[in-house]
Design brief:
The structure is a single chain. It contains four helices and four strands. It is of the alpha+beta class. Bound molecules: iron/sulfur cluster (SF4) (2 copies).
Length: 88
């Protein structure tokens, strides 16, 4: 499981979720922020911080927001951004 950032984040990108994530697994992309699916520990802390309710647990994603699960994964495949990169 993972949490997923969806449509409402696009063009808002205020970063409020980043500040509360205990494992720093939320990364800024060109259009929205993205949650690394392998690093997220599903604590749920980010969900209530988001002013536009953009964050869902993957299994609770509304139908219309399902494509964002793949979009989040694809972002990290493209950018190869991981915690281990930032630890170096
Ligand atoms: S659910 Fe927790 S670990 Fe996952 S992105 Fe949100 S704050 Fe970070
Ligand atoms: S708090 Fe919500 S709108 Fe702000 S960056 Fe995170 S997901 Fe995007």
């Amino acid at each position: 499981m993972t949490h997923v950032i969806t449509q409402p984040c696009i063009n808002v990108k205020d970063g409020a979720c980043v500040d509360v994530c205990p494992v720093d697994c939320i990364y800024e992309g060109p259009d929205q922020f993205y949650i690394h699916p392998d690093e997220c520990i599903d604590c749920g802390a980010c969900v209530s911080e988001c002013p536009v309710d953009a964050i869902f647990m993957d299994e609770d994603l509304p139908e219309a927001a399902r494509p964002f699960l793949a979009k989040n994964r694809a972002f990290f495949k493209r950018s190869k951004t991981t915690a281990s990169d930032t630890d170096r």
